[in-house]
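CORE FACILITY INTAKE
Project code: CF-77B
Contact: R.S. (postdoc)
Sample description: multi-component assembly, two entities in total
Requested service: structural model of the whole complex
Turnaround: standard
Below are the sequence entries exactly as provided by the requester. Do not edit them.
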Amino acid sequence: MTNTMVKVTVFLLVVLGIYLWIGYSITELTGGERTASAAVDVSPEGGEAIYWGKGRCFTCHSVGGQGSAVRGPNHGQFGEKFPLPMGARAAERAKERAEKTGEEFTAVDYIVESLSDPGAYVVKGYKNEMAVVYAPPISLNLNEIKAVVAYMMSLGGDLDMAAIDTEPGELTAGFYGKIAAAAAAGGGDPVAGQLVFEDNCLDCHVVAGEGGEGGEIGPDLSATAKKGLKFIAESILQPGKKITKGFETFVLVDKEGRKVVGLKSRDEGGEVDITKANGEVVTVAKAEIKEITQDSTQSLMPDDLSEAMTVKDYQDVLSFMMLQKGQ
Amino acid sequence: MARREKIVKQLASRVGKPGLALLAGLAVLLLTSQAFALEANEYRQVLGLDSRRVVWFLAQMHLFFGAFVLGVPLFAVIIEIVGWRNGDERFDKLAYEFTSLLSVAYATTAALGGLLAFALFTLYPTFMGYMAGVFKDVFFIYALLFFGETFALYLYYYGWNWLKGTNPYNSTVIWVCRALGVLVLLFGIAFTIGAVGPEMRTDTRWFIILLYILPTGIGFLLIKDRKSSHIFIGIMLNVVGTAIMQAANSWAGFMMSPAGVDAEGVVTGSTWQAFENVLATPVAIHRMLGNLAFGGLVAGSYAAVKFIGAKTAEDKAHYDWMGYIANFVAISALIPLPFAGYYLGREVYSTSAVMGNNMMGGDFSWTFIIQAMLVGSLFILSNYYLWSGMTRIPGAERYYKLIKYILFALIVSFAIWLTPHNLPLTSGEVGRMGGSQYHPMLKFLGLMPAKNAVVNLIILSTFFSFLLYRRGNKVDVASIRGQGQLPRIIIPLAGLAAIAMVGQYAITMLNMDPAELDLPADRAEYMRTLGWMLVFDGAVIALAVVMALFDKGKWGQWLILAVTAFNVTIFLGVYGFVVMEKASPVLRNVAVAQFLQLLACLISVTAIDIFLFRGAKEIGTLNWGRMSVRSQYALLLLTFVITMNMGLMGFIRSGLRGDWHIFGVMRDTSEWGFTPSNFTMTQQVGGAVLLFMAGCAFMFWLGGLTANKKDDD
């Protein structure tokens, strides 16, 4: 049996040796060992470290012959498709962008816009599928994003660190503001989220003193962020699950069998006011009421918002809501 | 645009009164230091070692032994039941022999678990404090389940001979057990339709039904004497073991797809929500099948070592047979494993596209190439072992000529599976390929439709090898019509199950609204094509069932196999590229259609096969022990490969979180917060495999001592 065990052990060691050799060869082929990302300066070197490390840009992009990803455009000079490296290419793209928008775009503006709002001007032949780099799990902070911009500009472009960092132009400053706001909210795009909110929610809800034009039939959301992401998410998708006190739905049936569903907005002097979802107030004398019941499972808020909104709208609204922390 | 700009300014002023600088500062502070965690992470070291590698190694060792402790009882109970139903004492002895290995493995697993827990709590105190806060209830349930596992295991092992009798209990006991069984099954029905139990994901509900409620109910119904009571204890041992695994999986799943907490880590939901996070059950399903395959193969390696060292023909015959049974159980679990992996991968993508992209196209793309090599090796080696086994079967030489074709199909499939979509290239190489980073022809083989097609062909080929093995020593098929009522019940039932499987998905595909996948209405044709193909497949199965009942079972089998091979590999393999181009989201439906047709084929063909060769005239008896030593090394290699693969997959699963302890919630701010290289992975996993195998050798040696002592007694 000893002989057998020796044979089997040698066999196992040979197999493990091959396993280690494969791991070693692949690691050598793909750039060697990595280390943890240290804090970086706003510089091309810092941006390069972010690009090939924490930022995970290399998952989708390559720089010339460096890297192997092809999901996103190559940022270096590469074949006929990319005759210019990113810095020089950004200047060309900025001109096209200026023509389309009528605004003055610099190369830095273009790159910052691509990071802030990747869907704004997608390179032909590619999909708008870039991750939000300032949201989890990538979660780059503003300085790290500036460093990446510097790295991109250093690839054949006119590198102007002031335009990137200390003295950004108006457009870039605007994008930085958006990135900072979104990052503070933990992801999503709160700017787009406010647009969605204004178009869909402001009739019934109030935020920072604005809204509620359709009657105050939804709670004031000015400090809703304090309730946490989970609560907000559930309130949007399943509004009936946890109804804020004072906004429960009542079902009133009068003696003639007519039914009114809405908030009980007044109950005094022998009368009850029911505010319907569309803001209409129906006043019913108590003597005319056959029964009035509270439906704790139903909310006046539409429960099909998940169908009406895209996933992006939903995430954007969430990030906007997470900014509502009250005064 | 103007409205957007106005909003940007409004938001900036609303969030931070002192201005944008403070807001940016807040973002920097949030993202670079605490990063959504509740407090700053604290990290410690022991003996100056890399804490992550310490925890990784201990976790890996704990998981290997844990998989052994969970996998071997699964394997043991299955073969004990087979022996009990067939009245074959050899199976019973085999089950006992393996169970005897468990007590040492169980103690080692528990010791390693304790060591791992100490390491985690001392080296990663903040992280573990947070996890303990979220999962405090589950932690206690987990600990209590260990008592259940311990009692069940020792009762199962030490009670083996005590509970051997087949004298029936008195009728009251039997009826009480049956009543309990019926009650459990009724509860299961209520649970299935959602009448009882909390709201939960469909996969979690079915996991609980199939792995807890159904076995418990059936276990109670089986009890009629001491032996069946022993089997019931074995079933409960597995139920409790599975629950332990599921609890631990919920923590691993939570770290990848946190639920029940907000982005700052504050618990906003229930413990159940955290427990039942998106990835918990997909990981559990994958691990369950993996454990069964692993248990079978570790048992197989035991048999292989014993075979290589055996001195007598009798010993060789015994260990050859043992290796065959172990390999058979392992292959049965291996076949559905790629689909469980596919499901898990899909859920990873659903959780986070960034995580999914990192898995298949980022840090782990090369790791997946190593994984493909290992999984491909598993299938090729399993087939090789089956083919070697045919040398012990008189009459099997009739089928030798087919082996080269199966091997060809396996090698080609394996090569396609290994082909990456693209590789790092020099500019010269790019120039030679016309400026593209993709090879003009091979690029197609690196895409999902090609890989789905070949993985199905690999499984179908392995199944075909198994069918050849089964009919090796049979003169001809038996008459199904002459076998009474049983085949008339079982074959149509299996056929119905298979038809229901493809039929329900056919209905889904025929009625699916393209808008559900964000596709325009005119893309409905791609779903309808799948639907009608599944209808056709169901019709073919129905026809084959009828043919089998009229003694044309062999032709029925050929019909199903041929249609499945064509539909799954050729038609859908090519059609997948069309779908990818025209209606990319439908590609996942193509994969499901492939999987369901394959599964329906396996079920229906196996059901027919059982009765085709039931009592069929044999050419000669099997020459157990007439196996090459090479085949035993193949069996050993299978165990090494699956163990290395388990370690590798664990690296991918855990590494997908990147530099997050809890994805998107708690960042890893330690000096080890980066994805290690594949070389580091092979070092860690290789070291753990070596130590685990040494542990196994020790357990086998101890088991041998016990067996020798009993023989002496």
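Facility notes:
- The first strand of chain B starts at residue 660 and ends at 662.
- Residues 154 and 372 of chain B are 39 Å apart (CA to CA).
Invoice: internal transfer
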